[in-house]
Amino acid sequence: MELGVSLLVIAIKILVILGVVLGVGAYLTWVERKVAAHIQRRPGPMVVGWHGLLQPLADGLKLITKEDLFPRYGNKFLYNLAIVMALVPAVLVFAVVPFGPQVEILGVKVKPILTDVNVGLLLVFALGSMAVYAIALAGWASNSKYALIGSMRKAGIIVSYEVVITFAVMGPVILAGTLSTYDIVQKQIEQGLWYIWLQPLAFVVYLFAMLAETGRVPFDIQEAEAELVTGFTVEYGGMKFGIFPLVEWYVEVLSLSAIAVVLFLGGWSPINIPFLGFVDPLFFLGPLSPFVWFILKVTLLFLFVLWLHWTLPRYRIDQITETAWKVMLPITFINLVFTAVIAPLVWR
What UniProt keywords apply to this chain's record, in alphabetical order (predicted)? Predict the structure, then answer.
């Protein structure tokens, strides 16, 4: 009986995560177009539905009905495999993202996390590193010099910033003493302190690395519309073309924003004031308050990414890689030394 209930809970969690992530990811295209429009003093989507709310559905229908073309002399198997390798790991990251505290539903205790493993953070970056294979395959299998150049640029950026982002998250890991995403949030709540107050350098570096990993401005050199059309996706069409930006610009940004909230912003905890503890202005929401806080934090980080995207110029590829190895990496080393000094004080 207990096994059946456990399997049912897991199945519901999987369906909810898939539905929410892919549904929200699709509608974030509308959010970005609206944000960009207001920054540029124009209305944005307004025709399909009230204020363009049905525009993502119209775009999806348009992509589905387009003809599925394949580049001549390309490798069809790897061409299609690249799409799967881009989408599946990006969604799997949410398996170890804790959305709130443990709750009891109909007498069953449920953790709002698909799988709480003690190496959850390690799993996040193992899945994240698979993106480089998807991008390299997409560029090579397309048999296009523009796609190949775009994929090599992106692969170089990911390799550089994977190292940076790994060292950046080591600070919160040392302070919490665990790689479990759920336990890292719990430790911040127990210690009464968000780790952003102890790790401001790591948080800033993480944000830069997140922008680079997801190909957002100012690190979108792999796309470079004026030079490479759309980079490694130039030979993709229809829904296949739509999956890549959906994964890279929205699903990955959401997942990395959620991980940033877990590592630095106390997960589902309310507002944290150093030395004063937590303040919850949304206390009247009762048990829904933690989930609302988590969603608000992720939303604010996503809007911050959009704001940067539509206000900053693009870096050159040499500037991007030099920033990673000559600026970001030394900063993370300095931060690790600082963390090693303050960690015993936090544990006390």
Answer: Cell inner membrane, Cell membrane, Membrane, NAD, Oxidoreductase, Quinone, Translocase, Transmembrane, Transmembrane helix, Ubiquinone
